[in-house]
Amino acid sequence: MADTLVRSTFADGVRTLTLDSPHNRNALSRALVGQLLEGIEAAGEDPDTRVLVIAAEGKAFCAGADLSEMTSADDDARARGTAAMLAMIRAVVACPRPVVARVHAPVRAGGIGLVAASDIAIASTDATFALSEVRLGLAPAIISLPVAPRMTPRAAARTWLTGEVFDGAAAAEHGLVTTAVAPDQLNAEVDAVVADLVKSPVQGLAETKRLLTGDLLARIDAGGEAMQGLSARLFGSEVAQELMQGFLKR
Question: Does the pTM exceed 0.90?
Answer without folding.
Answer: yes
